[in-house]
From TrEMBL:
Organism of provenance: Pseudoduganella armeniaca
Class of enzymatic activity (EC top level): hydrolase
Domain GP-PDE: 39-370
Top-level taxon of the source organism: Bacteria
Identification of the protein by name: glycerophosphodiester phosphodiesterase
Catalysed conversion reaction: a sn-glycero-3-phosphodiester + H2O = an alcohol + sn-glycerol 3-phosphate + H(+)
The keyword Signal appears for this protein: yes
Gene Ontology MF terms in the entry: glycerophosphodiester phosphodiesterase activity
Gene3D superfamilies per the UniProt record, alphabetical: Phosphatidylinositol (PI) phosphodiesterase (3.20.20.190)
GO cellular component, one term: periplasmic space
Length: 372
């Protein structure tokens, strides 16, 4: 199950290997390989266009709508528990600001190069966090999701794994996990390093020893560490996320290094990424940028360069509201309006570049775009 394999296993070989070791819980090998021959649909924070992000409701909807993988972003509580939140700041995605018992914990912190004022996960124990409830991050654009505000608890990583394993057993469909380690440098400075906690959690669960797991980070040192500790396994890939231009990974900034995301996206930089990661994941507009009028420009060379380096190409993030679409695909219904046809059309345009996977806030639309 965990024997070394060649680093750049194909999509078909990767899924077949994982399915072949998973026993009756997962699809037969041939079915699984066939089911995953197409580009992968990653549910960004679950079905986050339709339900508050990183909740069981968001993950359940994503799986029902055909996502191949669900994404738990991982941060750490004061007492050392990994939980699914997009960042350390709890202000926009929970009801913490309305909880008078936690008013005194409002503070100011800096992570990933930005300073935030609010309430932070590492100032709360898991028991305290469990008293909070999730809310929609952008209610003006997603009122349908906002109607679920206050209904759902925050989740530990272990709870997410158990839920996905149960869904896989129930549906008979192989469902992957694409966890992102968030702000590793920040949590290490707080003596709450994510990596060993994450490795221990993977090892403790039968499902994550067998099912597909693709681990993401915008930092570099943590991915190198994970590659060294986890080795190369049939069910595991590492994904290097990147920003744009002169932005730098937080771990590089911490040591006053000079590496930028732009340098990582050059042919030379991509070869270096391929020495420790399997996937390169730039934002969509790094692949096809926008013109001044907001419409799509010509594609850059990045897609071809990524594949030439032997890396998979997976991009983030497609969202179904007009405000997030290129001008080519907007329908004139208002910036906050859902535009399903436009979102599918935009994803199909990017799929023409040879994507191996895409992140979307609405997996049903991603499934439609991929399936044709």
């Amino acid at each position: 199950m965990t024997a070394p394999i060649t680093r750049h296993l194909s999509r078909r070989g990767f899924i077949a290997a994982a399915a072949g070791t998973a026993g009756a819980l997962l699809l037969p090998r041939a079915q699984a390989a066939e089911a995953r021959a197409k580009p992968l649909v990653f549910a960004h924070r679950g079905a986050s266009a339709l339900r508050p992000e990183h909740t069981l409701a968001a993950y359940s909807k994503a799986i029902a709508d055909g996502a191949d993988y669900i994404e738990p972003d991982l941060v750490c509580t004061r007492d050392g528990v990994l939980v699914a939140r997009h960042e350390a700041d709890l202000t926009e995605t929970t009801d913490v600001a309305k909880r008078p018992e936690f008013a005194s914990r409002r503070t100011r912190k800096t992570f990933d190069g930005e300073t935030h004022t609010g309430w932070f996960v590492d100032d709360f124990t898991l028991a305290e966090l469990k008293t909070l409830r999730a809310v929609e991050r952008i209610p003006q654009s997603r009122p349908g999701s906002a109607q679920y505000d206050g209904m759902f608890q925050l989740l530990t990583f272990e709870e997410v794994i158990d839920f996905v394993a149960a869904q896989s057993a129930t549906t008979g469909r192989l469902i992957g996990l694409v966890p992102e380690l968030k702000s590793s440098t920040y949590f290490a400075a707080a003596k709450l390093a994510l990596e060993d906690r994450f490795i221990a959690t993977l090892a403790a669960h039968e499902y994550t020893r067998r099912a597909p797991v693709e681990i993401q980070s915008f930092e570099v040192a943590n991915l190198r560490y994970l590659r060294d500790k986890l080795g190369r396994r049939a069910n595991l890939r590492l994904m290097q996320l990147v920003g744009v231009g002169a932005m730098q990974p937080s771990d590089v900034v911490a040591v006053r290094g000079k590496l930028t995301y732009a340098e990582m996206a050059t042919p030379r930089g991509l070869r270096d990424v391929a020495s420790y990661a399997d996937t390169f994941a730039p934002p969509t507009r790094a692949l096809i940028p926008l013109k001044k009028d907001g419409s799509l420009d010509a594609p850059t060379a990045l897609a071809a360069d990524v594949h030439a380096a032997g890396l998979r190409l997976e991009t983030w993030t497609f969202r179904p509201e007009n405000r997030f679409l290129a001008a080519d695909f907007r329908d004139g219904a208002g910036e906050h309006a859902r535009n399903e046809a436009g979102s599918v059309a935009e994803m199909r345009r990017y799929l023409q570049l040879g994507l191996d996977g895409l992140f979307t806030d609405d997996p049903a639309l991603g499934r439609k775009a991929v399936d044709g």
